[in-house]
């Protein structure tokens, strides 16, 4: 691959997915795209790049973008965000949404679905507190392929062993040969939708909690700022944003402030300023239909 071809790919991927490739990632590009070239009956990586340059092959363009975006996920990944959910976010929502008993959660860059399903399990485990509530979880991703896997809720032995306690596996999964499938009740709690964070997403509505973990690290600073500011518009003043351990809003946007003592957890600036007063009281949220009522 020539330097000019690599420069084209860098521009192509940044435009389509926001992914920023450094010059030392050429080996990664080659390892992921050579199999696509071969399966597309293109003899070389240069031939694949020439096809992309010509345009008009949407299927190939999509395959290239999906091959280069990382789809790493596992159940209860990093643990801390789920502790924040159980100990901070959920109690706040139970208080603030007590009248309406409705809550919406968005998992952006949900990959193969382990994060949304982990949250669904947390909610099932808290059934005594959220019984009768209408709760909607939306999982989105750039890749249709990983969303199709997420919809099935079907995982290998290796996948369920990564972060999922055995008691929760036996409680919420059914064994299907050498695979495990999360039960129908939990699958029904989650809606899946293909979504590119580079595009406008106001049409998906407002959410009380947004998980957007381990995806901003792949974007440049202006793109991070733009996405964070649009997420802020999708959250009410008392909503929560959860980022990955290596991600922050500091230096990117004034719309959010860190929740003190809660790594990776952020609130709208208005809520952070109100924290010195009796906090998190009485807010309401506009909610879409189609949620699941927990019993």
From TrEMBL:
A Pfam family it matches: CheR_N
Keyword Ribosomal protein attached: no
InterPro entries listed in its UniProt record: Bact_Chemotaxis_MeTrfase (IPR050903), CheR_C (IPR022642), CheR_MeTrfase (IPR000780), CheR_N (IPR022641), CheR_N_sf (IPR036804), SAM-dependent_MTases_sf (IPR029063)
Entry's Gene Ontology BP terms: methylation
Catalytic activity: L-glutamyl-[protein] + S-adenosyl-L-methionine = [protein]-L-glutamate 5-O-methyl ester + S-adenosyl-L-homocysteine
Keywords noted in UniProt: Methyltransferase, S-adenosyl-L-methionine, Transferase
A GO term for molecular function: protein-glutamate O-methyltransferase activity
Domain CheR-type methyltransferase: 1-267
EC number: 2.1.1.80
Protein known as: protein-glutamate O-methyltransferase
């Amino acid at each position: 691959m020539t330097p000019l071809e690599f420069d084209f790919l860098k521009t192509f991927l940044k435009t389509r997915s926001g992914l920023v490739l450094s010059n030392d990632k050429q080996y990664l590009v080659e390892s992921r795209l050579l199999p696509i070239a071969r399966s597309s009956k293109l003899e070389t990586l240069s031939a694949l790049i020439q096809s992309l340059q010509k345009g008009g092959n949407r299927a190939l363009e999509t395959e290239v973008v999906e091959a280069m975006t990382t789809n790493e996920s596992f159940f209860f990944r990093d643990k801390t965000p789920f502790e924040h959910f159980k100990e901070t976010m959920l109690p706040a929502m139970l208080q603030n949404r007590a009248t309406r008993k409705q809550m919406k959660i968005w998992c952006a860059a949900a990959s193969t679905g382990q994060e949304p399903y982990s949250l669904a399990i947390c909610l099932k485990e808290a059934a005594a507190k959220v019984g009768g509530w209408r709760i909607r979880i939306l999982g989105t991703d750039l890749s249709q392929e990983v969303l199709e896997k997420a919809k099935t809720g079907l995982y290998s032995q290796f996948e369920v062993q990564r972060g999922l306690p055995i008691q929760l596996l036996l409680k919420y999964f059914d064994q299907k040969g050498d695979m495990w499938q999360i039960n129908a009740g939990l699958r029904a709690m989650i809606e899946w939708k293909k979504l590119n964070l580079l595009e406008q997403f106001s049409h998906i509505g407002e959410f009380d909690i947004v998980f957007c973990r381990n995806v901003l690290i792949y974007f440049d600073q202006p793109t991070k700022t733009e996405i964070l500011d649009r997420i802020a518009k999708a959250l009410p003043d008392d909503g929560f944003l959860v980022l990955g351990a290596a991600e922050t809003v500091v230096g990117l946007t004034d719309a959010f402030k860190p929740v003190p003592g809660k790594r990776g957890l952020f609130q709208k600036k208005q809520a952070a300023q109100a924290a010195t007063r009796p906090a998190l009281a009485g807010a309401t949220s506009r909610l879409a239909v189609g949620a699941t009522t927990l019993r």
